[in-house]
User: Fold this.
Amino acid sequence: MLSSLPFSATTTTWHNPPADAPAASFPLRYHTPSPTDLWYTPTEHRDSAPTLLLNDTIAPTTPFTLTTHFRAPYKTLYDQAGLAIYQSPTVWLKAGVEFFDNELKVSTVVTNGFSDWSVQPYTSFLAPGEQPKEGFPLWVRAVRKQGKGGEVVVEASVDGQRWKLIRHCFGWDKEVRVGIMSAAPTKSEGFEVTFEEVRVEV
Assistant:
């Protein structure tokens, strides 16, 4: 049976804290400053995104499920928020919502030396005729399997019930910290994000 790790003020630490960095209690609301980003390519090395992570690492062989539910008024190119699996500035995974090409995308970036990026339209997660709710809420979960080469399955949902696969990757048999992040890479006034919950089960 899975047990939950507490995600609270005493068990987490901010990496690149925002000016109004709150303690981890829910709903957790803060202003994402600009320009901030989490991105690593041969020409760009960015590790300035506000990221709230568990203090304790999760061992390489320990399976876990990280789930979060959040919303924000995304409006500027690359505004983003979601979950984070973090080992170092060059080894991490993030998944959530990102504003790109004048619409919201459900986005995943896997970085292991360099970043790669995949997106799907947010609207593709809605049922036929369904309209997005205020704040464009999204649930995202990442599941690391046991004994399968560091297999991680990432899924997303607009209601916490109907889940769709957004990424399936390997090589995550690493000691990692887990949590949440947001970023506003394009120069702007930034945006306020609200995380309704974060669950870590091992």
User: Anything to note?
Assistant: The domain at 4-201 is CATH 2.60.120.200 (Jelly Rolls). The CA atoms of residues 164 and 172 lie 21 Å apart.
